[in-house]
Amino acid sequence: MFRGMLARFEPLFRRVDRLAGGRRSDVRIDEAMLTHPRTKRAFTAITWLLVVEFAIGIAAVVVALVLATDGVPVEWSVWMRTVVVLGMTATLFYFAWRASLGYYWGYSRLRLFSKIFPVITLVLAAIPGLYPLWMVTEQIVFSLILIGVADYLDSDHMRAAFPKPQQG
User: Fold this and answer.
1) Spatial separation of the C-alpha atoms in residues 148 and 36, rounded to whole Å
2) Alpha carbon 21 to chain centroid, angstroms
3) Residue 103 burial (CB < 10 Å; 0-12/13-18/19+)?
4) Deepest of 13, 21, 30, 134, by most Cβ within 10 A of its Cβ?
5) Tens-place pLDDT, residues 38-52
6) What's the predicted TM-score (pTM) here?
């Protein structure tokens, strides 16, 4: 049932793919590599890591709401951070889903952003006074989880499963 519902929206997803993946958004990997047990295990692990990321993002929103409700001032930067984390995680889910269907662009974007986001997050966490300690801790955990995602994507098997498409 869920797949049928998703199939109805595939034309919309293909438009998003074209926007996010560019000219070669339709390039897919070999079916044998896509269905390989190591590829499937990697995407299962990546999905669970992203679920944890999303849960951490929701928890950060809840903490900020509880603090604000209790009269503790919550800085604008904290609210922006919570919204950005949820948006980033949703985007990463989309990339992971499309990569798990074999789209090279999804794999490459997920691999890129799982390396870039932790660096940005850790740099922001290091700015004194920008975030309260609980949010700095959240950012560090967020970064470590994304480094785990990058580790799965950078494995020899996954790089062999998703070879860079030839120019042309």
Assistant:
1) 21
2) 15
3) buried
4) 21
5) 999 999 999 999 999
6) 0.88
Say how far apart CA 146 and CA 114 lie, in whole Å: 5
Interval 73-116: pLDDT, tens = 999 999 999 999 899 999 999 999 989 999 999 999 999 999 99
* Percentage of residues of the chain with pLDDT beyond 70: 94
- How do the domains of the chain map onto residue ranges? 31-161
Residue 15, both tokens: 């438009």
Q: Give the Cβ contact number of residue 95 at 10 Å.
A: 25
DSSP 83-100: HHHHHHHHHHHHHHHHHH
Residue 119, amino acid: V
The first and second tokens of residue 88, run together, are 């980033």
Q: Which of 111, 119, 95 is nearest to 155 (CA)?
A: 111
What's the rounded Cα separation, in Å, for the pair 53 and 80?
Answer: 16
Q: ∠ at Cα 143 (18, 131), nearest 5°?
A: 110
